[in-house]
């Protein structure tokens, strides 16, 4: 079905046309629209335009009003104050537009982006042989939401999970296990992915401790890295075993997060090994990178250390080894030239911003970015504890992600169980809804905060039925489903001929903004704006319930129209939450 033009866009077009007629020399002037408490919309571009053309703003506004046709979409328009335009949209236009959205069951009238292309999203990047911790949460949750949003707007999305699966740590771990085989004391077939990873993590920490304390072991471990890079069969087999075991664990964690991670999308550091030498050669031959004290470096005038000297991006070390920059630059080459991407989106911790700034600038200088190919870092802040400090256990250890998710589900299940008898939930439904509410709470707390900001992880608040939480939104959806189940023979039907109450108008106008919100959020990479929209929608719904009877409305037509409004609200909540990766239970 064709997309539905929002009422705000229709009004915008009419005002622009009226302005062009009133002031032909300013035909390109486009009045800005914003929400107003005293009317449906308020045009605030007249003042700036009047100053530009040296006209009286109130007189110019009056001229614009004289050119506007009213009676269909626009019910009334008036000049306010020094030259504002207050626009009231007709009740009929609101319901007719919403009816068109309602008829489009798959997309709710949301348009596709004007020029969709191909975007590679680099997100959810755990490390092989290490347990995932709270620091891995934001990249996964934000990245998954951006995948859903961009795909919904028509973009072709290629997912990439750039896992840490190469480097010195593997020489260290393999060498340690060769020398301490008795420490691998489990039969792998008898343990879960989490238990196997816990064992690997323990072995890694023991290997790191020995590596830092014993120079001879450090030398042997570094030789083992050379063996790995050279493809020594025994070393490579052990490395592959670590990778495979780690993937099983990764899949189990992402399953808890209710996220789909596909094996072909996991392309770690090792996936670009064959490109590293060529990447360095291309950079050196083009003059983008130069040799400095034996290392291959890229310098930037605006990146300097405390001593005032320029700090380079080291692509190849003086001993011939490759750093993260060589891998990241090779990944860019692969994503641009092999995957044919127009956009590269990196969902990576804000603390790596300088690294990616230098990597992107290097790629631009080399000609790999530019000419329609752009790279962005969707930088995110830190997860904090209630005390405002980085989230740690009482012992000062980093919080394991699985422990955090399990606790969230446990807390949420207790909340669900409290209301289970009242809404008639079975034990299976209690367990399922506990999962949906707990994981939804964790995701929403992350996504409702601007990505670049830090946020406090407070499970008590996250699973609360009050305030800006996913539970509040899930409950709003479930409440609508309860009303629809009790509606008997009455069905949701749009009635454009009816006069709307103020709360109905407010709810309807907000529903009509869903499509514009989705496109804006996808284009700006700001999922928190969708979370804000959905919270406002649930708040409008609450005000509507307080002021408007649904099943006991005055007339059968009014019952049908209000059922139509709440059903469209439910569908919008369901679609919006799904784009954030959050489930909406039918009963709660």
UniProtKB/TrEMBL annotation:
Keywords from the named record: Aminoacyl-tRNA synthetase, ATP-binding, Cytoplasm, Ligase, Nucleotide-binding, Protein biosynthesis
Similarity remark: Belongs to the class-I aminoacyl-tRNA synthetase family.
Enzymatic reactions: tRNA(Arg) + L-arginine + ATP = L-arginyl-tRNA(Arg) + AMP + diphosphate
Annotated organism of origin: Streptomyces aurantiogriseus
Localization: Cytoplasm
Entry EC number(s): 6.1.1.19
Segments forming domain DALR anticodon binding: 473-588
Name by which UniProt lists this protein: Arginine--tRNA ligase
Any single Gene Ontology cellular-component annotation: cytoplasm
Keyword flag Cytoplasm: yes
Motif ('HIGH' region): 126-136
UniProt keyword annotation of Transcription regulation present: no
HAMAP family assigned: Arg_tRNA_synth (MF_00123)
A Pfam family the protein falls into: DALR_1
Subunit (UniProt): Monomer.
GO molecular function terms noted in the UniProt entry: arginine-tRNA ligase activity; ATP binding
Main location: cytoplasm
Residues annotated as domain Arginyl tRNA synthetase N-terminal: 9-89
């Amino acid at each position: 079905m064709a997309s539905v033009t929002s009422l705000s866009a229709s009004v915008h077009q009419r005002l622009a046309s009226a302005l062009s007629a009133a002031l032909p020399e300013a035909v390109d002037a486009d009045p800005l629209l914003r929400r107003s408490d005293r009317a449906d919309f308020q045009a605030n571009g007249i003042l700036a335009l009047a100053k530009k053309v040296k006209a009286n703003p109130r007189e110019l506004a009056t001229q614009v009003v004289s050119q506007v046709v009213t009676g269909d979409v626009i019910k009334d328009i008036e000049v306010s104050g020094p030259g504002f335009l207050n626009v009231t949209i007709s009740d009929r236009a609101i319901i007719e537009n919403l009816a068109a959205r309602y008829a489009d069951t798959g997309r709710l009238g949301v348009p596709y982006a004007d020029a969709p292309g191909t975007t590679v999203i680099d997100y959810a990047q755990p490390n092989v042989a290490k347990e995932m911790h709270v620091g891995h949460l934001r990249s996964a949750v934000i990245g998954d939401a951006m995948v859903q949003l961009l795909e919904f707007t028509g973009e072709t999305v290629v997912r990439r999970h750039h896992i840490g699966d190469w480097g010195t740590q593997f020489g260290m771990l393999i060498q340690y296990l060769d020398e301490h085989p008795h420490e691998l004391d489990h039969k792998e077939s008898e343990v879960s992915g989490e238990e196997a990873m816990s064992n690997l993590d323990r072995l890694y920490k023991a290997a790191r401790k020995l590596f830092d304390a014993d120079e001879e072991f450090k030398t042997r471990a570094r030789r083992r890295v050379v063996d790995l890079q050279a493809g020594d069969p025994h070393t490579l087999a052990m490395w592959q075993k670590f990778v495979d075991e780690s993937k099983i664990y990764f899949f189990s964690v992402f399953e808890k997060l209710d996220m789909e991670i596909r094996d072909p999308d996991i392309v770690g550091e090792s996936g670009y090994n064959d490109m590293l030498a060529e990447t360095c050669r291309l950079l050196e031959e083009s003059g983008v990178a130069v040799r400095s004290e034996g290392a291959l470096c890229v310098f930037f005038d605006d990146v300097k250390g405390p001593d005032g000297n320029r700090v380079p991006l080291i692509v190849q070390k003086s001993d011939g080894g490759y750093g993260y920059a060589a891998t990241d630059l090779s990944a860019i080459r692969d994503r641009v030239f092999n995957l044919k991407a127009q956009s590269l989106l990196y969902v990576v911790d804000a603390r790596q911003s300088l690294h990616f700034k230098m990597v992107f600038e290097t790629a631009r200088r080399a000609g790999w970015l530019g000419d329609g190919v752009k790279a962005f870092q969707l930088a995110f802040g830190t997860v904090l504890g209630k005390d405002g400090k980085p989230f740690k256990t009482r012992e000062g250890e980093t919080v394991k992600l699985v422990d955090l998710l399990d606790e969230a589900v446990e807390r949420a299940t207790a909340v669900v169980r409290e209301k289970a008898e009242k809404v008639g939930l079975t034990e299976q439904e209690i367990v399922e809804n506990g999962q949906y509410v707990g994981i939804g709470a964790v995701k929403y707390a992350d996504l409702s905060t601007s990505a670049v900001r830090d946020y406090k992880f407070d499970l008590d608040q996250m699973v609360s039925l009050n305030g800006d939480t996913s539970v509040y939104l899930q409950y709003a959806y479930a409440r609508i489903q309860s009303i629809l189940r009790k509606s008997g023979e009455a069905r949701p039907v749009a009635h454009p001929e009816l006069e709307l109450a103020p709360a109905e108008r407010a709810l309807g106008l907000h529903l009509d903004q869903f499509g514009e919100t989705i496109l804006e959020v996808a284009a700006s990479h700001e999922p928190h704006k969708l979370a804000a929209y959905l919270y406002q929608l649930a708040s409008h719904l609450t005000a509507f319930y307080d002021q408007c009877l649904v099943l006991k409305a005055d007339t059968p037509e009014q019952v049908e129209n209000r059922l139509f409004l709440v059903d469209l609200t439910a569908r919008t909540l369901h679609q919006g939450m799904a784009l954030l990766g959050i489930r909406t239970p039918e009963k709660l």
